Amino acid sequence: MNDDRIAGYKILRRLGAGSMGQVFLVEHPRLPRRDALKLLPGELSRSDDFTARFAREADLLAQLSHPNIVTLYDRGEHDGSLWIAMEFVDGTDAGALVQARGPLSVDLVLPLIAGAGAALDYAWRTQKITHRDVKPGNILIAWDRDANPPALDTVKLADFGIAKAAEESTSLTATGMTIGTMAYISPEAIDGSPVDNRSDIYSLACTAYHLLAGRPPFTETSISALMAAHLHRPVPPIRTVAPHVPAGWDAVFARALAKDPASRYGTCAEFVAALSAATQPSAVPTGGPAYSPTLAGSAPAVRHAHTTTTGRSQWLLPAAVIVAAIALVAAGTFVFLNGQSDGSDSTVAAPSSTHTVTTTTTPSSTTTAATTPTVQAQTPTETVTVPVTPAPVEGQPCGADQFNDYSADGTLYCSAMNEAWTDLTHQSRPAVERGSSCSEPGARARVQYTDGIATCKIGPDGTLIWDW
């Protein structure tokens, strides 16, 4: 690779780097314009499966034209690495803003969430595209610096689609999923169920929660603990961590963050409308976050797109993620975003097992007059046997009265998504290659590049290997 050019684009400076590649500010080879160029890692670029999916997703995303979506300009291959060129937003992102300022005001968060929500609704309505990696770092912001004080001018959503290609051609853990991404992922994306726009609504609500509270809904320090929290723990009411928000928002967030997609709002617009309806000037306590810039209208204007942030560059990375990827996108930036933690891990109580109960009743003696013999009556011992419920097995059907229950050993839970007992043990392990060695008999793990689950078994030669 030429030191100062990529596919004809002149490199002006590097804006960010991470496990999914590098992002550069570049000068277009023919037009008087600066773009953001993402150079993907060689290991992804060498995968024929990923390359094909990457091209398919990029072609879909190139058709998206919306004022709140970062535009994809071009794609190609350079020195064995895939690249995409996209719109450059000269500003910051919501993640960097909340990191620098702390919890944001209601007046600022509403237009940020409205802009990102409009982008999500448009992509789903027109192309049935889900984002899969909605988070503060993917909401790009630019200001009207001529206004006094500076007014919000641009809200654009980055990281559409390409992570879906990574998800489909690799596995969740194999693609470098980070806590910064997992903090906003929906329950159905975690357990492998089909996802639609309601998954993005959950992630958008997690993002709004973070912007208002200065932290995401769950702050566990490991990916497995975050997975368990999204799947099973109730979300703390927003006003317990952000007392400056209107009282009516507790109910709105409770619905948007419901574990069951059917219980959520149907569109992002409905979520934003519910927030607006519950926002009454008298309901917003004083003493909230001091940072509340003047807004340039309810629908921020569109302008050039991409980001540089204080202390570290934050960038549009084409992608979206679910159970798969830290993402890169046909429209966005790359972000170094580490999950914040309160140091608490989620704990889930397993249902107690049934057992045999024996009860003995002995009534007190009854004594008559002196001339009457003493008579004692004793009730015979009564034994009540409660049948012991057999332990469930992977794939066994379960009913509505068992949804979200755990097996006694904590390795299975009853999923409302597929109405069956679902194994949990594979989620805490990296993806494995079939036939590779293992050390824990009976352990389970996802097989690389597939949705299959392997078990650690004794192989033909007597050694432990991962096998179907």
Automatic annotation (TrEMBL):
Its EC number is 2.7.11.1. The keyword Cytoplasm does not apply. The keyword Zinc-finger does not apply. Coiled coil: none annotated. Residues 346-381 have a biased composition (Low complexity). Gene3D superfamilies: Phosphorylase Kinase, domain 1, Transferase(Phosphotransferase) domain 1. It comes from the Bacteria. PANTHER family: MITOGEN-ACTIVATED PROTEIN KINASE KINASE KINASE 20-RELATED, SERINE_THREONINE-PROTEIN KINASE NEKL-3. This is non-specific serine/threonine protein kinase. It comes from Gordonia alkaliphila.
